[in-house]
Amino acid sequence: MRWHGIFSVALSVIPVQSLFVDEAYNIDFHHALLGIPQPHSTFFHKPDASSNAALLYSLSDKAVLGALNPRDGSLVWRQSLASQPTVNATTSFLVAGEGDGKVTTAVGKEVATWDASDGKLVWKYTARGEVKAVDLQAVPVLGSSTDGAVQDVILLTQPLQEGGSYVVSRIGGDGSGERWRHEDVDTKLDAQVGIATSLKHLFYITKSAGLLSGQRTKVVVFDIITGKQLKEYSPALDSETVAVDGRLASASGSEAPLLITSETPYKTIKFNLLGNNKVSTITLDDKGEDIVSVSAHSALGTTAESHFLLHVRTATKNWAEVYHINTATGDFKRAYSLPAIKDASAFAASNNGKNVFFSRATSTEVSVYSSQSHGHLGRWPRNVLAGSRTSSTDPIYAIAEVAIRDNTNTAVRTAIISPEGSLYLVRNGDTQWVRAEMLAYAELAAWFDYAQVTPLAQELSAEVSVDPATAYINRVYRHAKELMHLPNYLVKLAQGAFGPAEDKPSVREDLLGSRSLILATSRKQIVSLSGISGAIQWDADLPSAISDGAAVRSLAISEGRVTIYTSDGSVSVLNATTGGVIETKTGTIPAARIIELPGTPASTLLKVNEEGIPQVAVDLAPSVPLEGNVVMTQDQTGNLVGWTVGTTVRKTWTFTPTPGKIVAVTTRPEQDPIASIGKVLGDRSVLYKYFTPNMAVLTTMSNEILTMYLIDAVTGAVLHTSSHAGVLDSFPISAVLSENWYAYTFTSSNPETNALSTQLIISELYESDVPNDRGQLSAQTNYSSFGPDGNVKPHVVSAAFTLAEPMSHLTVTQTAQGITSRSLLAYLPGSHAMIAIPRHVLDARRPIDRDPTSSEAEEGLFRYTPELSLDPKTFLSHARDVVGISHISAVPTLLESTSTVFGFGHDIFGTQVAPSQTFDVLGKNFSKFQLLATVVALYLGVLALRPLVRRNVVKRGWL
Amino acid sequence: MSEKEIPPPPRWVVELNSPPPSRSKSASSLPDPPGFLSSKAVSKKSEQKTRKPPTQEEMDTLKLKKSWEIALGPAKQLPMQAIMGYMSGNSLQIFSIMMVFMLFKGPLQAIAQTNSTFARLEGENTRSQMLGVKAVYVLMNCLLLALGIWKVNAMGLLPTTRSDWLAWEYARTPLERAYFPR
């Protein structure tokens, strides 16, 4: 019947679906993340000399630089220093000048300066040779920026290979490049190196393993202006340094940079005022316990007094000692100590001109001390943020900014990094905001449907299991109980009827079904997010029984439990609603990947080890897999291996691409419902789709040639192959397989013009190229891949589209029944956006070089154009800047029209997509009030007209 | 009311009862004005001769003629309906839907009421002939019905193609299943 045709014609009128203005920011959520701030590159800083308010600048360990508004924690600007956020970018540095409105970063071999107020790049300098930055320090500015003084930086680079030289260079703050450089060829790669600046001098410190003694420290002093080497000395410091951020020197950039060393059990601390040969020794009182760690905190300002604080930690206590330095003689004097308390403390030093303040943050309070005396200037109990999920947690690092008004009123803003990876801002004692930065480390995700655990679902399943009579009585009871909620329900209904069509998350949740997304991070945390609003519901660490080196390999959710498989073979089970640990089982068979198979008595788990050999997970639960199933794994050399699993596991086939190497294997999504097995053409004949759950698409690369194989994973037989030359593997290559089609994207360069072009290829599979024909197997209801039926190959129709920019992480939308047309989801790394391309635009059967015939037009096909425009108006992420998406996941909702889409990797972005418009929901412009008012008005009209009509009827009867 | 109080008859009654005096000879030679009939002429026309009532056979022939007219009536509608069907197009709109509805409702109703339609015209002698007439009537209505079916088919509302039965076709099940690591 033609309904279908009419529907698709209607669709083709709107070639690309777009996002409505009132949907943006309402149906989507976004966590714009930085990653966990590094303590040495996080500070409060005024974006320019004229501004009053400071921003919180941070360079995270994912090499993302950002400026946060301390008022609400919102991102003012953000830059990803590597082109995409990288994991473990620990050697990244951030320094700020004094009021010149810029911040400078060093990551890898690149030094860049950014405008502090808007994050725009000012200049960029790339160090020569194969090197990486290991330290960056600001040169103290003599005079103000208005005098034309520029904020230079000192860069220390380390060679990547043995034989290179360490280079200390001064980089001009005006973007003019290197002012002077000093090369050090003697120091080995395993040495510890660092730099420190004072007002006039630059200190280059190396600590290398000596031949005889443990470690030898060498300090080279340079004139910071000219770069001339002034002197070189070796202080008698042979133990490890205790600067807070892992650098060698403390208090760099101040009048008195220090070298502080100690070693376990930290009884004696040795100091050297840099530039002075003298080494002082101080003995610490251990208060009857073993000292676990010592770290030094000092203020960074050039004008600040030379005071510093040593934070001493034992197993149960935390305290601090404050020292004053005599810069003339190089002597140290212990000024006072702060009380030892049980709570974990974080100390932060800050200065306000000459005055130095030390702030102490614990889980219960924040206090501020002057460096001069031990009396506290302010002390506030920590209050939890209203409506916050977590209680105030132990701080691991703190960064503070102290303001003193009228010499008496002290206020402190403390940025606290908690162990679970959240960034808190505490103003005096009140928590102002929390940023969940641990979400930037999400690696795996699984969806949890609350319907699994609702009491109703459980009751219904209970009713199924008992005999009909009991079930009936139970049901009557249940309905009777539900009647008690009737008054409430009526009130709610009345409110809903007269209120506007709301778009609150709770309303959407009712409509779409409440789901939450369980994420596993590389920091071994499990976090649960609401699927609609993106709010964090709970977070939990992996149970301590899981060994330290283990990584999360797989997440599975069933019956309200999250099952976490780790690489050491263990399994932990958490409650999906609360995050509480239910059980932990340590396994003996390590697992790189997990496969679940039907088996007896329950489904069988198969662990695939690093070599790609599957093994039944008998260490977790005894189970025998059903015979005749095939599993597909990738071995160490990259070949694909098929295994027949039964009571034994046997190798069935091996797939080796010639030439090349398999870079990715794509299979159909676990839930991929197909509503119709054929495609209805304009003349109402049917083109039958070719699909099987056993298909897999292999992406192989060899020498710039991309070959895609479509295989039957049961036998390893190749069903279809396509090849593309000149493909660059430095650009994303991604594939998706769903229903009866697969799509892939790659970027290739034209060998003649060197022009880059990104292409998206779509291939549709049909049982036959003739309509109304089901191919060779025609009326068969089943088939075996091993028999002669297995030779049947699909009829493949392909089309290629060129894109303006590379695209990655192709995924497809999912709906409950698969009736709604699908959309292709992808991330645009260049535009920092997520897009949905309607599937009917990517139809491989679009007529080429001619207009569609009337029957094709009725089918919804329109003329093929090779270029596929990605209109920013159609971006799912609209105006949001979504950085570093590396996984996209789509699940059905309760509405057939809508699919929930979620992307993670660095930022977290979630939204809802309706590829065929929301045909099963009343639009927002539907006014219940208007409808009711019309009904009431009509009724009143009838009442008013009733006497009139009655009179007329009577009159007509008489006359 | 008393008899005395009977008012004199109105003037127009008096004038009607006493027609104007006959015209003079000279006047009578003048022709009447167009459209005016003098009483003489009227009286001449009013002399009607009484017609002989028709015989039974004549009546039967007449009725048969009339019933043939009725029987062939639907056929006369056929070209017009066909043109209307063609003009209204094959899309699903209120006009074409109404038209298709009428195309079905009319003939079906007519067929159901065949006997009552011809009841008035049926006689003892024409019964056998009427059977043929009725058969033609039903046939003609069937023609209209066929037109309706043609129209419905043109609109794509008849399940005559493969796609209409697609929902009852099932995908082939593979005997082996392959599983992939997640």
TrEMBL record, chain A:
CC annotations in GO: EMC complex
Subcellular location: Endoplasmic reticulum membrane
Primary site of residence: endoplasmic reticulum
Membrane-crossing segments per the record: 929-949
Every EMC1 first beta-propeller domain range: 19-437
Protein topology in the membrane: Single-pass type I membrane protein
InterPro entries: Beta-prop_EMC1_1st, EMC1, EMC1_C, PQQ_rpt_dom, Quinoprotein_ADH-like_sf, WD40/YVTN_repeat-like_dom_sf
Keyword terms, alphabetized: Endoplasmic reticulum, Glycoprotein, Membrane, Signal, Transmembrane, Transmembrane helix
Span of domain ER membrane protein complex subunit 1 C-terminal: 738-958
Signal peptide extent: 1-18
GO biological process: protein folding in endoplasmic reticulum
Record domain Pyrrolo-quinoline quinone repeat: where: 516-642
Oligomer and partners: Component of the ER membrane protein complex (EMC).
Family: Belongs to the EMC1 family.
Protein name: ER membrane protein complex subunit 1
From TrEMBL, chain B:
Transmembrane residue ranges: 83-104, 131-150
Keyword annotations from UniProtKB, A to Z: Endoplasmic reticulum, Membrane, Transmembrane, Transmembrane helix
Short name of one Pfam family: EMC4
Membrane topology: Multi-pass membrane protein
Entry's family note: Belongs to the EMC4 family.
Subcellular location: Endoplasmic reticulum membrane
Keyword Endoplasmic reticulum appears in the UniProt entry: yes
Protein name: ER membrane protein complex subunit 4
GO CC annotations, alphabetized: endoplasmic reticulum membrane
Region (Disordered): 1-60
Main localization of the protein described in the UniProt heading: endoplasmic reticulum
Keyword Endoplasmic reticulum appears in the UniProt entry: yes
